[in-house]
């Protein structure tokens, strides 16, 4: 059993990354050969495992990386059996002259000098949240009583992640519940919201070196993106459901959905006591500024260039791209290549050029998302 004082010490740290870093130090103090641990989270909707946290220094960290769980046989067995895996000599998995024929993640671990690995599923009840990977530069480190101790640490890490996610889930669930009142009114479908969230996550992960998001922030981008049009709940049916072109007065009223969205969001945050939740400002920026344009012609405040928060610029690109590649009663879905050309055309004036370029650089991934989350038709 882990010492009771550990939980008390953890309470001194406010954010999840700080708590995990503290645990990394504590684990290494007690077991000097367990030199790092990393966490990857599982997204059941896409069957993707994605990097989330590591105690590694930046030059050694594996970040902004994801892969389908179905393609990772060993991890899939851990997930199915709910049981840890020990590899006490990683070099046995990378025989000489086999470069390029083994798991690239394993290859990189060996190249960095790691020799042993202990992997445990992160579970909350029956829910698989992800995996924690402990590594050592010394072969045959993970055996005996250390295995039991690391399983306890794995359970603690799972609990910390669940608690952190519970707050985010409370926020997103409360907003989604509010938005559900708009179901049947808003012409945007659940498929659109899921796809544009995936595109937003993809853009955020590929904006380096100019912009650097942590894996945790990228995870929040995925969760927050579908909430961008919260304010449409306050738009009257005569405008939201109008089939013809809006009048200038009606369009001005439609524009108010950004500021009304912030009013609704602030109320949700206050009601649930989430004012101090990390990254809540990211969601506020998305809700308020996702219709701003780089040339200052957008709304609600006519911001331009880098005055527009980067998360709002990301959402704008994801939103426009999915609108172009989705079928609607008044248009066919555009091919991905044609839609990307259109994004390039309006980059710099309407959309952020860096965000457009980040999406262009991942065309294969974009096509995979579109194929996996098939475009849906909104009925007139």
How far apart lie the N and C ends?
61 Å
| DSSP summary: helix tally | 15
- Classified by CATH, the class of the largest domain is Mainly Alpha
Low-confidence segments = none
Name of the CATH superfamily of the largest domain: Hypothetical protein af1432
Could you report the average pLDDT, rounded to the nearest whole number?
A: 88
How much helicity do the residues have?
40-55%
Radius of gyration: 23 Å
User: What class, by secondary structure content?
Assistant: alpha+beta
Q: Give the biggest sheet.
A: 6 strands, antiparallel
Number of strands: 6
Order of helical and strand elements: HHEEEHEHEEHHHHHHHHHHH
Number of domains: 2
Principal-axes geometry comes out as globular
CATH fold naming of the largest domain: Hypothetical protein af1432
* Share in β-strands: 5-15%
CATH architecture of the largest domain: Orthogonal Bundle
Spatial strand sequence of the major β-sheet: 3-2-1-6-5-4
SSE order and pairing:
Layout: H1 4-10, H2 16-30, E1 36-43, E2 48-54, E3 66-68, H3 73-81, E4 85-87, H4 104-111, E5 116-124, E6 127-136, H5 145-180, H6 190-205, H7 215-224, H8 237-240, H9 248-255, H10 257-271, H11 280-289, H12 310-324, H13 336-346, H14 353-360, H15 363-372
Antiparallel strand pairs: 1-2, 1-6, 2-3, 4-5, 5-6
Helix pairs in contact: 2-5, 6-7, 6-12, 6-14, 6-15, 10-11, 11-12
């Amino acid at each position: 059993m882990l010492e009771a004082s550990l939980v008390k010490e953890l309470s001194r740290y406010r954010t999840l990354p700080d708590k995990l870093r503290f645990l990394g130090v504590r684990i290494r103090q007690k077991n000097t050969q367990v030199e790092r641990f990393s966490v990857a989270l599982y997204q059941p909707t896409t069957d993707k495992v994605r990097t989330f946290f590591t105690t590694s220094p930046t030059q050694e960290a594996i970040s902004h990386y994801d892969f389908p769980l179905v393609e990772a046989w060993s991890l899939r067995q851990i997930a199915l059996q709910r049981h840890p895996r020990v590899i006490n000599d990683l070099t046995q998995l990378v025989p000489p002259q086999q470069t390029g024929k083994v798991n690239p993640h394993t290859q990189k671990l060996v190249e960095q000098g790691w020799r042993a690995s202990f992997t445990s599923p992160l579970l909350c009840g029956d829910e698989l949240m992800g995996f924690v990977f402990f590594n050592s530069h010394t072969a045959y480190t993970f055996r005996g009583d250390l295995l039991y101790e690391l399983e306890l640490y794995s359970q603690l890490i799972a609990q910390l992640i669940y608690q952190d996610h519970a707050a985010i889930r409370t926020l997103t669930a409360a907003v989604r519940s509010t938005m559900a009142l708009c179901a049947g009114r808003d012409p945007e479908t659940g498929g659109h919201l899921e796809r544009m969230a995936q595109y937003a996550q993809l853009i955020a992960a590929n904006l380096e070196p100019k912009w650097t998001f942590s894996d945790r922030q990228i995870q929040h981008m995925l969760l927050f993106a579908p909430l961008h049009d919260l304010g449409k709940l306050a738009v009257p049916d005569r405008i939201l459901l109008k089939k013809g072109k809006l009048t200038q007065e009606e369009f001005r009223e439609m524009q108010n959905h950004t500021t009304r969205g912030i009013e609704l969001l602030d109320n949700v945050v206050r009601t649930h006591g989430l004012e101090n939740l990390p990254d809540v400002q990211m969601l506020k920026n998305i809700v308020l500024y996702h219709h701003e344009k780089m040339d200052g012609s957008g709304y609600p405040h006519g911001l331009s260039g880098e005055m527009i928060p980067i998360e709002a610029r990301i959402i704008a690109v994801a939103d426009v791209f999915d609108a172009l590649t989705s079928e609607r009663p008044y248009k066919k879905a555009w091919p991905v290549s044609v839609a990307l050309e259109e994004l390039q055309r309006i980059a710099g004036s309407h959309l952020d050029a860096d965000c457009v370029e980040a999406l262009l650089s991942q065309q294969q991934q974009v096509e995979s998302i579109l194929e996996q989350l098939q475009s849906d038709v909104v009925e007139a």
